[in-house]
Amino acid sequence: MIREAIARAMDGGTLSEVESRAVMEEIMEGRATDAQIAAFLVALRMRGETVEELIGAAKVMREKVTEVPVGVDAVDTCGTGGDGAGTFNISTVAAFVVAGAGV
Question: What does DSSP assign to residue 78?
């Protein structure tokens, strides 16, 4: 499926949610090569991802996620910065403020 998806995306075509799921399953199950994954992602980025494609991929990733038990209440701000837009990474500062407040 990934080969067909690459060709279709390069030609400007889109994938249905079901087709996107099939591609992401190939990727997540190790049945796609690094080169195929790179080609697929670049083709999507060049054309622009559709909502259907994102939903299909996200559903597969959520189904295959490995839960990590933490044993305590935790908050993950996921602030990595690097968006290239020159924005301020407020989530890291928010984590310091919340920690300072004793949360």
Answer: -
Within 10 A of 97 (CB to CB), how many other CB atoms are there? Answer: 10
Rounded Cα distance between 90 and 92, Å, is 6
pTM assigned to the model: 0.70
Q: Which CATH number fits the domain that encloses residue 58? A: 1.20.970.10
* Distance in angstroms (rounded) separating the CA atoms of residues 11 and 14: 9
Inside any domain, residue 73? no
Domain that holds residue 29: 2-64
| pLDDT per residue as tens digits for the range 12-45 | 999 999 999 999 999 999 999 999 999 999 999 9
Q: 22 with 60: CB under 8 angstroms? A: no
Decide: 95 and 79 in contact? Cβ < 8 Å: yes
